[in-house]
Automatic annotation (TrEMBL):
The lineage of its organism: Eukaryota, Sar, Stramenopiles, Ochrophyta, Bacillariophyta. Keywords: Signal. Residues 1-20 form the signal peptide. It comes from the Eukaryota. It comes from Thalassiosira oceanica. This is Thioesterase domain-containing protein. The keyword Signal applies.
Amino acid sequence: MPMMMLGVLLIVFSVAPQLASPFAQVSSIPAAPAASKTRHTWTSPTKQIFIEDTDAYGVIYNANYARCYERALSHVPREEELGGDEMILSSVEAQKYSGSPPLGGQYVIRGERLEASTNKEVWSVELTSPPVKDTPTMVHNSAQVTLSRGQPLKVVEVTSPTQAEGVHCQYKLIAYKDELDTCIPCDGVSQQEEKAEYYVSVRSAMCYFERARSTFLGGPDMLRKLQEEENLLYVVTSNSDCHVYFDTILVEGGIEGELEMKLRPGDEVTVQTMFSVRRRGMIVDCRHRLYLGDGPRRLLAKATITIMALNGTTRRPTSKLPQWLVDKFTA
Ligand SMILES: *[C@@H]1O[C@H](CO)[C@@H](O)[C@H](O)[C@H]1NC(C)=O
């Protein structure tokens, strides 16, 4: 759902800059911590939007910004011997979706490194229009992202937060090989001897979450019907805390055999989602968690994605929703 409709947000931005408040703050970037020696600003080479980057509306698909950031930051000059390509995007937080360059359009990633150590970098990043003299820069997307180097696998027990809150929907999926990435854990000494581990990338996790939200609402047919009969669109406006766990096995409810908890291509994974509704359904926070197997045991990824209902005619936020839709989120 939300996915396909980012184009709408773009339109909103170019023709109606006086938009209501939820949008006004969309391009702000989280404040940086106090200056440190590791601070570093950087702008990527100009990139172009290809068909593979877009959704049905010809704008960047919501999960693909993560890929843009990870690719761009792999080119940052680094002193260490281990190249930047070994750094894995492990979280995308405070991500604001303001719009998108169109298919064929160009963009750059601007980043400010807020923290850096051998195994971890934190960046404040923006996907913007390329710098053109005398033209204001347009910020399409912004986030705080973390790059990490895989460490030797460790098992950590965590308490499950999902039980008390109630799960609205649960979907099982197959994690296919092309949806998984691999990482060679690196303890700083014996990189070659370590075996690669599979993990779910931020992008794949966000695709699974997108699929779960859309399926919950009734799939593409229902989204089309919402648009045609109710004049409603849902768009993704933010992603507050997407984390993937690739060197830490977070286990809920008791540690069992570590081997069984390794992710492999073809494994079944489960997406659990809890919805909280604000402004009578105009804003829906979707808290997603991705597990290996069929229940809370090994946590692979999580994210809170916020979607917003827009009036199809005015492209403005609306809370004039059919009751069945509000009931669906709150039941
Ligand atoms: C959309 O906006 C139009 C024009 O203001 C209004 O007539 C209609 O009721 C609105 N629909 C929704 C679902 O907000």
